[in-house]
């Protein structure tokens, strides 16, 4: 999980009077469908600042959507790419029991102490593997981060299972080791 987000969650009881889990229960009870309505509810009925309200609602929606549903939706219409995702996940989970997967709408963040990789079905024929490898030059199949911006420093494009070779596993492992 992002360090800033974790700090915000840690400060939530002091700043808002309730823990994240307590806010989840309040939102669940209200059954507010739209994001903007839920944010407005927290701001007007509970005096929560916009930043906290938006974070609470966003995290509650992520919690309500089963992780596998988010991943399945990413590969809807791109079923030939799902085995690439599955193989990448099996590789990173072997690195240690401190790896966390955080599926989002369009990608899956791979986190240790910090995010070290991002897996995204970029097109119908390609998965982009974003890696956080500070101070490492572009080389081999390791290219500039492309669409990931500051989230990742590098990217590797994967088209088929055989693309997840020793070089890719090496870069994933290095990113994992650097993420402490």
Which structural class do the helices and strands define? alpha+beta
Q: Which shape, going by the Cα principal axes?
A: elongated
Number of domains: 2
Rg, nearest Å: 18 Å
Uncertain runs are: none
Number of helices: 7
Strand content: 15-25%
How would you sum up the major sheet?
6 strands, antiparallel
Helix content: 40-55%
Helix and strand element order: HHHHHHEEEEEEH
Largest sheet, spatial ordering of strands = 1-2-3-4-6-5
Number of DSSP E strands = 6
Task: Average the pLDDT over all residues and give the rounded result.
Answer: 89
Distance between the termini: 12 Å
Organism: Shewanella woodyi (strain ATCC 51908 / MS32)
Protein name: DUF5655 domain-containing protein
Domain DUF5655: 72-177
